[in-house]
Amino acid sequence: MKIDPNSTADLSAQIASAIRDAIVSGELIVDARLPSEAELADQFQVSRPTVREALKRLAAQSLIRTQRGATGGAFVNRLSFEEAYGQQITTSTLLLSMNEVSFDVACEARYAMERACAPLSAKRRTGDQLATMRAEIHRQSQPGLSDEAFCASDVTFHRALVDGAGNPVLSYQLAGAVEAMQPLMNMITFSERSRERIVALHTAITDALEARNPAQIEALLADLEAYTLKIAHEIAARRRAK
Amino acid sequence: MKIDPNSTADLSAQIASAIRDAIVSGELIVDARLPSEAELADQFQVSRPTVREALKRLAAQSLIRTQRGATGGAFVNRLSFEEAYGQQITTSTLLLSMNEVSFDVACEARYAMERACAPLSAKRRTGDQLATMRAEIHRQSQPGLSDEAFCASDVTFHRALVDGAGNPVLSYQLAGAVEAMQPLMNMITFSERSRERIVALHTAITDALEARNPAQIEALLADLEAYTLKIAHEIAARRRAK
DNA sequence: CGATTTTCATTTGTCTGACATTTGTGCTTG
DNA sequence: CAAGCACAAATGTCAGACAAATGAAAATCG
């Protein structure tokens, strides 16, 4: 691990990059202990605060974890699916909120990916996942439910559908789409949409999943997408009219 | 922005979290300038190195950028699709390499998502994208091409297919899948696969895309998936036999 | 007066040295 | 032998200082 003395970039960024490369390349394996901060400082010929800034950068990406005490130090972290989900959701949320992504584009991407799960979910869905979905549908039918709770239930429903595919990589990839976009969509459309209609579609989707009918699931998801789009366009049109 | 004095977590992590929340919630908007490090240190009642560690954590997630000099400081960064791609790829690569994800699972997820692009790509693909794909196919047909170059060309080919959907959100979501998993798959299967067969499938996919035939694209992607899986299983079986 | 140069204040980047806190280890002692 | 204690090592935090970059204001010159 070496850094380029001629680079103008921050030393802490260079050091972080060097260590990251060592991890990605496999030079540092999972649970390996990095040299102590003092040793790293000596090795890179910088001060300890600079090394610490580099380590914090890596910690922010869940690449390392630190432990205090005698046998402590910085260790290469096994990036869990849970941690990766979290980062994925944060990044996706910010990406959407900062880039004026049109509703149509976000909606299209989200449903395209969700439909990709349909064949797998139809094949592998468990009773647990069906039960979760039916429970959420029941909650969504309660008259007194707040908009926030309805939205949260909606997210849980769709995640159960995605998890039904039984593929953790796919679930990870979709976490960003469902958890980041669904609230965004709900925020825009919650005032106008018909809960009855959504509950009806959710019920039909669950039935199709129970019957292991992938084509039906895909068609119903397309219906849900079309309905969501229609509501959003109506709201946009009304806003323009004013 | 406040931190909990009773928390046992690192101060720099708490401060980073507080600022991150302010950004995500919209309290700090894009290009807004954060208080100077000295002011933040004063505000949170911590030292400047601690504040700096917090800021480096945020910088590692591309949430802020810093600038030196009189009018410098830390600014809320507009998270670009490019930056998000990069993070997505790093995270996906590590997730796959550290979690003993089976080849089958990764392969299934990757092709499921890519097939999700097929209908949109068939509708919107441009001449440029077709040209890119044909150029890559031509490169892949060169006899003297190294395995690394063939793999890189393969990635470019599939990215052009994905970008053909004309949906940046979808492209972003798939960046992790294609750029992280494709090299992994190539690394495993490159020794046994038939380049002729892959080139033939790529050609057929490009033809189907030119003809705007989504079902055909999906079927051919399924063929490619099946072929990749078959090779991987053969290699695994041979390894077991030894 | 206008253009150029100089100075200067502000801010981040880095260093030094120190102390606090945590935690495993091994020694001491009952 | 076991409980407790001192110690060492490592991270977490702090204070103060200087270096370097950079834009703005002031001074200078044609």
Number of helices of chain A: 10
Strand content of chain A: under 5%
Please give the CATH class of the largest domain in chain A.
Mainly Alpha
What percent of residues of chain A adopt helix (DSSP H or I)?
A: over 70%
Radius of gyration of chain A: 23 Å
Strand order of the largest sheet of chain A: 1-2
CATH-assigned homologous superfamily of the largest domain in chain A: GntR ligand-binding domain-like
Number of strands of chain A: 2
Major β-sheet annotation of chain A: 2 strands, antiparallel
- The N- and C-terminal alpha carbons of chain A lie at a distance of 62 Å
| CATH-level-2 architecture of the largest domain in chain A | Up-down Bundle
Q: What structural class results from the helix and strand content of chain A?
A: mainly alpha
What is the overall silhouette of chain A? elongated
Q: Most extensive chain contact? A: A-B, 58 and 58 residues
What is the residue-averaged pLDDT of chain A?
92
Task: Name the helix and strand elements of chain A from N-terminus to C-terminus, one letter apiece.
Answer: HHHEEHHHHHHH
User: Would you tell me which CATH topology of the largest domain in chain A applies?
Assistant: Four Helix Bundle (Hemerythrin (Met), subunit A)
